[in-house]
Write a structure and sequence with these properties.
The protein is mainly alpha-helical. It contains five helices and four strands.
């Protein structure tokens, strides 16, 4: 009698164990399948975004090739915002922005590493007109120039290596305006004020 109960107990435990293993395997397979589906969807969206971006560049080239190059203004066809166009899953729109019409931060330092006095004076006026900290000027110069000499109101590595996380000055021309976020005196408000007015183009 007790042997039969024991056998039944062992059979029940075995059945529960098999069910638990089967459930675990099913859940694992389901999770992996969901991950694979999400990965595929992400790759498709990335490829779609890339193709849309390439199409935008091709369209911009076409518009610029047809432009009258003797004069530029807000009435030009390239300066008009492209109205929203429907695509699968949403809409897309775009516009061409003349970055040459902005102050080029990389012009602050000449190719030989010296400060460009004309660009320096212009950026100083821009900061004054925006009521921003004038120290930003020398800090940007120190960020771009190749030396490690600190300008009068500037900041080199010593000002940044003590931060958390620490980093160093680039000591090269800016690649993106977003590098302004790394400058010591540029807070979020200063960045928002400067970003639409400056560029980071080759000097």
């Amino acid at each position: 009698m007790s042997l039969t109960r024991l056998q039944r107990g062992v059979a029940l435990i075995t059945a529960l164990l098999v069910m638990a293993i089967a459930t675990t395997l099913a859940v694992t397979m389901s999770v992996r399948q969901n991950d694979a589906i999400l990965r595929t969807a992400t790759l498709q969206l990335r490829d779609q975004g890339r193709e849309l971006a390439l199409g935008g560049v091709a369209f911009a080239r076409m518009v610029l090739e047809q432009d009258d190059r003797t004069v530029d203004g807000p009435a030009d066809s390239w300066a008009q915002t492209l109205p929203p166009m429907p695509i699968d899953g949403g809409t897309i729109r775009g516009r061409i922005i003349d970055m040459q019409g902005r102050f080029n931060l990389n012009n602050l330092v000449n190719n030989d590493g010296t400060v460009n006095p004309i660009a320096y004076a212009r950026f100083a006026r821009l900061l004054a007109n925006l009521n921003l900290n004038p120290a930003i000027l020398d800090e940007v110069v120190d960020w771009i120039d190749p030396d490690r000499d600190v300008s009068p109101r500037g900041a080199e590595d010593e000002a940044y290596t003590g931060l958390n996380p620490p980093y160093r000055t680039a000591n090269r021309p800016m690649v993106s305006v977003s590098e302004l976020r790394q400058i010591r005196s540029v807070d979020e408000a200063a960045y928002r004020a400067l970003a639409p007015l400056v560029a980071a183009l080759p000097s």
